[in-house]
Amino acid sequence: MGINRITSGFLNDQSVFQLNHNLGILSGLQEKISSGRNINRPSDDPVGLTRILDLSNTLRTDDRYGRNIQDAIAEVNTTDKALSNMVDLIHRTQELATQGANFTNNQAGRDAIALEVDQIINQLVQLGNTDINGKYIFSGMKTNTPPFSRAAGTDNIAYAGTPPAQNWQREVEISRGVQLPINVNGDTLLGKAQVVAPAPLPPTFNATSGGLFKTLVELKIDLEAGGDPNQLQQIRLRLDELTTHMSNVAAQQASIGSISNRLELTQGRIDERKSILTKQYAEIQDVDMPRTIADLNHQQNIFEASLSVTARVLQTSLLNFLH
Amino acid sequence: MITPGFFGFYNAHRGLVATQNALNTVSHNISNANTEGYSRQRVDLEAYTPYTTPNMSQLIGGQLGQGPWVQQVTRSRDVFLDAQFRQSSGTLGLDTAIRDALQQVEGVLTEPSVSGINTAIQNFFDSSQELSLHPESMAVRANYIQQAIDMVNVFQQQGLQLSDLRRNLVGDPAVAASLDTSKLAISVNDVNTLLGNIAAINRSIISVKVSGAQPNDLMDQRDKLLDDLSKLVDIDVTNYDNGQIDLTIGGQVMIRSADQIESLEVVVNPNAPPGPPIPTYDDVPAFVQTVNGGVVLNNGAGAEITAGSIKGISDMGGNDPNLSTVRGVLEKLDTLLDTIVTQVNLLQQAGRDITGALGPPDIFFNDPALNPTETLNLFHWRVTQSVITDPGEVAAAIDDATAPGGFAGVGDGRNALNMAQLRDQTFAALGTTFVDYFNGITSKLGIDTRSYQNTSSSQEGLVQAVDQRRQSVSGVNVDEEMIDMLRYQRAFEATSKTIQMFDDVVKTILSLT
């Protein structure tokens, strides 16, 4: 630029312009370092911004899925525990039934066994009413209602949850568009029993009765009925039924186990992705401290140099040499 | 050849007067070294008409010099650089006005952040997921409603700030006072004041010129006013020999033959009626027009202001769909919130609440009494009071034809899950998902702001460069003035010496008697 005359005003303007410019760069670096973020407003880096918005959306959504999975795992684990306990109880019942079927036992012994079966029924009702923070897990969609109840002093066990006939599964979204059912229907699992007439033997049940509870109630009545060989035959039949119920519960447990596996697998994938995405996010948004601080030092040197040059140039004047 | 005895005294006297004038000018220059718009002045010295001595033998005799005189005092100025400066400073005014407004919009949206609209939308849909897991929990339902309230609040807070920002820029017919206090109105006032002052100086300059003198300082003042004016609007200046100027703004003559014949005013756009029906992009709230001719200068038709901060302000307060104008961003936020609440309400209407009742009240309802001065729906959405009072009314369950009474149970969170999954769906009104749409607004804003930051900073460099060239012609260099001062000081001393010499000569002659 062919500037021939340099004037005092020119020098002033030039100095102020340059000092402002340098100070602007310094304050930009200072903002980066103190906030720790490269992008503090959209205009800082519009392209990078689009990228970090996308990344943070995915991270947010994954985070949500992660929490869904944690929630589901808690329920599935509780279900698994309850199912294990049920399996133990069925085992115990099988032992008791085998003892009861043994001809050498007297009626007093069989009554004691019947008493224990009665207790097992109560325990199963209790297990069927397992809840997490007041949410009944075997009720289907009626999570506020305890599914099983035994009318006092009777052998009637009712089921109040949603019926198994419908596909009313409580589902959890574990990744975009993928939903997983997490509950086991109480009715399918334990059934229900309503005795219409305990005698004459065998007892008659209403039409909806069935499942483990029906078998247990029948076993109990059979045991109480005494040593009639015919009855002992009935007890053996109950033993066969118990084996069927056992495999039913075990199958549910296996299915819950596979759901649990899938949940943990997905969780693992989410965690893995999270660490990759977080790294990408950090590469764009997090300030490279050593480099930025080096930049800051460099810029500070420039600024100080420009200050000192300004001070020197503005001081020189012919006036200093005229006396 | 005989010259009058005191001839030399008058010669020297002229020399003293001339150098004294030169010294005065030096002093004037030095004192104004820091005066903005001041041009260095120079004294043009010329030898005075010579004296022709009478001579017996020749008709035309020898000529004797009669010392100097100050022919005129001129200012160093380059009118072409002035024109160049004014043109670039108009563009700078435009760019910086747009940049400043864009930065303010950025400040309102506060993205990327953990408290902005983006986060509020995410939180809302997250709480919907949570609701799908625990529809029987009142606490989870209450949290869902709280997130809905928060989301609407964030939209409205930022919306109101944008609305205020636009009011500050160009005013709003719905708020009468804002039309006089807007940046646009204030800038138009400034233009009128400057025009008045320029016209007044114009007349003074002509009268000085008529008397044959050079009105240097007045012309500097006028140039300074023209510089100031060029930051506000694009001006075109025609210079005349008699010192007057004609001035046009956006092609409209404002000053002719030294007199101001027009001024500007801000008028309400008749096409932008306040209140419903909701105006669209056509509603530039106010126009700049000439008072006498009624020519609108920023409506894109005919005569047009194309530069200066007034153009920038009216652009950002206007309706340019290619720019992230305040109104444009506001309307996009409006579309976004409208789509969210409509979709959520649709699902809510089709679902069943915690008691199994079908079609409970909408979660969001449109209340025109909320922010009545605003016309956009954005400002009128609120969460229905009965749903706030009883979050059980949120329809987390679907209407299931296979269930007795259509209601599977309180543990049915399928509708809540549907609501949550709205987040991943693409909607025709937006062309994409909610969050993507919002991110699009932010990105566009970032790109626009960045681009105007760049152009305004390079334009600033350009203006600076032109100004430096101007400074190199017109600026005062104190050292230079000191040298001139020494020169004239010595000349003054030397001239004084000649007076002493003539005095001695006269004394010698007188002593002969």
Question: Can you give a write-up of this model?
Answer:
The complex is a heterodimer of chains A (323) and B (513). Chain A has helices at residues 8-35, 46-101, 107-128, 186-190, 211-224, 229-285, 289-315; strands spanning 131-132, 135-136, 148-150, 157-159, 171-175, 178-181, 195-197, 204-205. Chain A is mainly alpha-helical. In chain A, the strands form 4 sheets. A two-stranded antiparallel sheet of chain A has the order 1-2. In chain A, strands 3-4 form a two-stranded antiparallel ribbon. A two-stranded antiparallel ribbon of chain A has the order 5-6. Chain A is rod-shaped and about 140 Å long. The model of chain A has no long low-confidence stretch (mean pLDDT 90). With 513 residues, chain B is α+β, with helices and mostly antiparallel strands. Chain B has 13 helices and 12 strands. Chain B has helices spanning 7-31, 79-109, 117-133, 138-170, 176-181, 183-210, 216-232, 308-316, 326-350, 385-389, 414-421, 434-474, 478-510, and strands spanning 41-47, 51-52, 63-64, 68-75, 235-239, 245-249, 252-256, 259-260, 264-268, 286-290, 364-366, 381-383. At the A-B interface, α1, α2 and β5 of A face α2, α3, α11, α12 and α13 of B.
